[in-house]
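quick one, 312 residues, struct below
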Amino acid sequence: MSESGPKFLSEVERKRLARLERTKQNARGRRAPAVMPSRLARTSAFAARVHGLDTDSNFRRTYIVPPHSVVEVAGRELGTRHRDALVALFRLRAKRVEARTETGQKIVVCQTETTWRELLAASGLTIHVTNLLTALRVLQELQRVTIRVFRGSHEEYLRAEARGMLAGAGWSDALIGRIEWDGAQLDSKLTVSYGEWVRRTLEERHLVAVDADVYFKLKSDYARCWWPYIDSQPAHSWINVELLASLAGRDYRAEETKKRVKLREEVRQALADMQQAGGLTSWVEEVVGSGRAKTYRYRYVRAGSPQAELPI
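---
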């Protein structure tokens, strides 16, 4: 066997191939899955609502999903429509493009090339020219936001924050860079270029597959908030209420009793929504522990299909 064969792969390369294989496995049976960076599928950076978002340009908030991610959003608050747009874009697939400047310097960008018609269809919106301005406005709002992603663990971030220090390595970049369209007709070409962090994440294959057909059938904001996380974890069969709360930007343990009861009601409605949309075949709520330590766990069975594997 040559030294380029699998036997001589580095540990980093082995892990990268394993991640890609898991993503491919999770894409099976999906007609048009959204293949997206794992941190975008498992973050709480998008509020579970459409209205009442903070649009102040000085907005800045850190979203923590222990132990998965620490993400800071600056520029404005993001919500369901912004998540919808990203799921639609990654459903249409991003590709790596190389170009050269006038001085001969090579530039590598990652972009999605599509049409207004395809974007509206991928987003589950009515295919009509009246929706073009709405779609563009959402993309421009994403363009104005800067996201800082910390690569270290949740514990490392908390220790650094307590000392007023920067928490190790990370990225700070816009999710979307240039937006270019050839016209205002449904079949006019639309090109959306991503920021450096998204490009590197795609190149490193830190990707997960999310069933976008199910996602756009979901009716509630909470269901759309939680489905990308649930569907991008094919080996998982349960999730606790604390994690669901953190994915929605909330701290379950710190909330008063009425808000906890309301959140659990939202969880049950969201899981029923996922089942109705064909994402889950069944689910059940379990009570774990008692007294002050009592919590809730939700077991679920994801719908699967033995259809042919889709290319990533």
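The radius of gyration is 20 Å.
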